[in-house]
Amino acid sequence: MTGPLPRQLRMRFVKLGKIRFTSHRDVARMWERALRRSRLPVAWSEGFSPRPLLSFGLALPTGDESLAEYLDVRLDVAGPETTGLAEPAQGLDPDARAALAELPGRLSPLLPDGIDVVAAGAVGIGVGSLQQEVTSCTWELEVLGLDPAVLGTRVESFLRAPSILIRRERKGREHEDDIRANVTELSVTGPVRREHMAQGPVCGLRVEMTTQPRGVRPAELVQGLGSDVVLARACRTQQWIERDGSRLEPLPWGGVRPGTDVPHANERAS
Fold first, then answer.
1. Three-class secondary structure of residue 163 per DSSP
2. I need a labelling partner for 257 at 20 to 30 A (CA). Which of 173, 211, 235, 250 fits?
């Protein structure tokens, strides 16, 4: 390491390609192994069964991809402490900034194919957990079954409706829930060319959905558009925190931007 690291880190990472079929719990185990191999001085809890002090953001549904996954890591160091939300290089001395800049390249090779660290920042220890702080997520979806014009009509009807009822299972029982209030933005982005897909139109959707008090999965949103619409692909592109009248990401993308090459990740997304 070039210099001293802050006492608490926030990592932003992507989950693309075949690794999308790995569960949230298994991804957490992969991170624990990678951090041990990295020799970072991760702090541990006390008690009979100590655990590394890691805090993950909102769980990603198994089978979905993401450009915006987050992990907070507490370090056992006497390094600089910051306040507020994470920034890749703000408010730290040059040595600490250099140490942070090294982390993505140091950690990504230790993680499985399809998981890549794209930003590392310092975050205040008193900041709330990611699961409490994040209020909404933006998704890019690809759906089968309808051409763009018909899908656009369905979207308009969805947005005009006072309620959208779907059925989902909780604790082994089926419940009918209204998801309309969770959907703050929904639009058709146009046809998508996917030669490996089954025959039929593939359309893109952009949606933003709130996460509190209960989130909505992309598959549940598509269920609300009709039984003849099939979800082919879902990618979480952003998570949002509302604070003091502003809307912020938990940690901005570092180095490369969505839509450009992610180091040794995009070639695995097929």
1. coil
2. 211
